[in-house]
Amino acid sequence: MKTRIFPVETEEIAYRRRRRKAKRANVLKAFASEEIHHQLTGKDLLCPDCQQEMKEIGSCPVRQELLFIPAQIKRLDHIQHAYKCQCCSLKNTSDKIVKAPVPKAPLAHSYGSASVIAHTIYQKYELKVPAYRQKNDWQKMGLPITRRDIINWQIKSTEYYFKPLYQLLKKKLLEQKFLHADETTYRVLESKTQKNFHWTFLSDKQAEKPITLYHHNPHRSGQVAIQFLGNYAGYLHCDMWQAYGQLAQATLAGCWAHVRRKFFEAVPPKASDKSISKQGVRCCNRMFALEKDWGNLSNEERLRLRRKKLAPLMREFFNWCRKQKTRTLPNSKLGKAIAYSLNHEETFKHVLLDGRLVLSNNLAERAIKSLVIGRKNWLFSRSFNGAQSSAIILSLIETAKRNGLDPEKYLGYLLSNLPNESTLTDKEALSAYLPWEKAAQANCR
User: Fold this and answer.
1) What gap in Å lies between CA 241 and CA 368, rounded to an integer?
2) What is the CA radius of gyration of the chain?
3) What is the pLDDT of residue 26?
4) Buried b / exposed e along 297-334 (16+ C-beta atoms within 10 A)
5) Secondary structure (3-state) at 301
6) C-alpha to C-alpha distance for 314 and 10, rounded to whole angstroms
7) Where does 174-298 have alpha helices with state H?
8) Which letter does DSSP use for residue 16 in this model?
């Protein structure tokens, strides 16, 4: 029997250019304006011919430009006022005195106010500026702080305020039915192991309350996934790393982007369109093309079409893989791509179980990318506590962004309000600070 060769697909791409209609003017309108008048005064008002004083006849705008105002530090002096009740003081042996409440600072006797700490965190984790480079900017503005000060602020803020909120977010995450997961290496200088790992667990794209969490651990074993996810019984998109296979109750959904990538990496230089590797890539492309066409459909309609059109294509692909396996070297890149596909065949087919599942785990890979870009700049954490702090802070930043918040405003909001809560163990009180709640949405956009 002849092996069926997947058809060569051609794609026509048409480009449309959008006209820029007053784009610069629209941008400039968004900023507050201040007029600068260029006038003649004194001797310049005299006519250069007759030396008589000239009279103004009008004015016109010449240009608009933006003015950059460098950051500055301002000292706030908190003055507490006290009040005495004259009536009660006359009736009793001691005076009745009431003092106005004063909000607590996140860290007592420290330069690190809520706004200062929030800005250092934003600089490091969102703009990827390491603490040792931030120090120069702060000192330029007159604040004599060190790299160690910045790091200590972030670790203490995490321990005192961010960690309880992170634990609440974790509880909310595990209540969701569809999750994504991924992991990457992370360097910790004081670690006993050569490699440490940051894991990410996040809700799917359709989640009403989107959450992205990072978790630091020295290991990449299945025990880490079990400790974090516990008895999670929903769907988990993953890259088929063996650790996830140890989750007893979770239903794994394999990533077809990994399948396509392995066949793509197996394509030899100057390969013809008939090469086995390219056939595998083309089949995966057809699946993704169908998913793209169904992107705006309801989950129910998408599932119906998957079972009608995608399921036969998957059966065809796996049957083709079984035929190619006998004629391919097992240790070659192509052999490994085929083995990877067949070893996890049933898991890759799980996308046919629910219309809300997706073909790829790209959502988790994009979440990991945010950490990887930062890792290239700050390089490592010195201690295990520092690595844990990084994971928790990144979790709050990425979750805030997914909920439409400005991450720096959100961190400042937390550092301004959480120190004034009587306890952070009250889940109901702490829930008011979750990024999708009304107060956070009103104050942090």
Assistant:
1) 15
2) 30
3) 87
4) eeeeebbebbeeebeeebeebeebbeebeeebeeeebb
5) helix
6) 21
7) 222-229, 256-265, 276-293
8) -
Question: Which strands make up the sheet holding 178-186, listed edge to edge?
Answer: 212-217, 196-203, 178-186, 235-238, 251-254
Distances (CA, A) of 359 to 176, 208, 220, 329, 429: 19, 20, 24, 28, 38
Q: Is 48 exposed, middle or buried (0-12, 13-18, 19+ CB in 10 A)?
A: exposed
pLDDT digits (tens, 9 = 90+) for 104-115: 999 999 999 999
Neighbours of 202 (CB within 10 A): 27
DSSP state of 318: H
CB under 8 A, 24+ apart: contacts of 26-33: 28/64, 28/66, 31/66, 33/64
User: Model confidence over 396-412: pLDDT tens digits?
Assistant: 999 999 999 999 999 99
Q: Which tokens go with 22?
A: 């007053």
Q: Going by C-beta distance under 8 Å and a sequence separation of 6 or more, which residues neighbour residue 157?
A: 106, 107, 112, 117, 121, 415
Answer yes or no: pTM beyond 0.90. no
Quick one: 250 exposed, middle or buried, by C-beta within 10 A (0-12, 13-18, 19+)? Answer: buried
pLDDT in tens, 333-362: 999 999 999 999 999 999 999 999 999 999
User: How far apart, in whole angstroms, are the C-alpha atoms of residue 300 and residue 13?
Assistant: 31
* Dihedral Cα 116, 119, 121, 123, nearest 10 deg: -140
Burial 127-154 (b: 16+ CB within 10 A, else e): eebbbeebbeebeeeeeebeeebbbbbb
Per the prediction, the chain carries an average pLDDT of 92
Token pair belonging to 59: 């004015």
Q: What is the pLDDT of residue 136?
A: 92
Residues paired with 197 in a beta bridge? 185, 217
DSSP state of 3: P
How far apart are alpha carbons 45 and 39 in whole angstroms?
A: 9
Distance of CA 203 to the CA centre of its chain: 12
**Do the beta carbons of residue 205 and residue 295 sit within 8 Å?**
no
Alpha-helical segments (H) within 186-275 = 222-229, 256-265
